[in-house]
Amino acid sequence: MTEQRDRIKDDEALKIIAWLSDLKFWAKQDDSYEQRQEGTGLWFLNESRFRNWVYGDTTVLWCPGSRTCPLSKR
């Protein structure tokens, strides 16, 4: 997590982040990271459509899904 914090050194950027939200971003991110389960999201990262997007075969990654259901049908 420190690597990400090191990237934001510009005072103006920090002021903008604080203005956008009073959420304690780093505390929330640290908490979320600690609760992460091993293997979370690997199904998505290994998906061929995602990999094609990452490696430049397409410029748009369309991720359709239901707002009410965490797992949409493929």
Comma- or semicolon-separated keywords:
single chain; mainly alpha
Q: What would you note in describing this structure?
A:
It is a single chain. This protein is mostly helical. The protein has one domain. The chain has helices at 2-7, 11-20, 25-35, 42-45, 48-54. It contains 5 helices and no strands. Helices cover 51% and strands 0% of the residues.
Q: Strand pairing plus helix content: what structural class?
A: mainly alpha
User: How many separate domains?
Assistant: 1
- The helix fraction, in percent, is 40-55%
- List low-pLDDT spans: none
Topology:
Layout: H1 2-7, H2 11-20, H3 25-35, H4 42-45, H5 48-54
Briefly summarize what is shown.
With 74 residues, the protein is an all-alpha fold.
